[in-house]
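Hi everyone, sorry if this is the wrong subforum. Our group has a chain we'd like a structural model of before ordering constructs, and none of us has done structure prediction before. Sequence below.
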Amino acid sequence: MNDIRDREAATMKFLLEVQVDQGRLVQDPEGELGRILRYWGGNLRHYSLKPGDGSAVYDSDYQEVGRWHIAGPAETDPPAPRPAA
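Answer:
Right subforum, don't worry. Here is the predicted structure as tokens:
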């Protein structure tokens, strides 16, 4: 890889957030999370996986329970230090 692609790859993240206290996840968190991960593991090939790509995540009852997205450099920078109290 060239230097520019190395820097871009180092600043991108795949972020998945799922509300485990909503929908079918309340009844079967392990089963539903496993299903979500298997589904998106196979479906990601349809995305270019560039910053800004993402989609809603649904449980097996088709209720939206989260979202995944590719975070770019601005979202992956370390947080600024908090001032001392």
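For your construct planning: The mean pLDDT is 84. Residues 51 and 72 are 5 Å apart (CA to CA).
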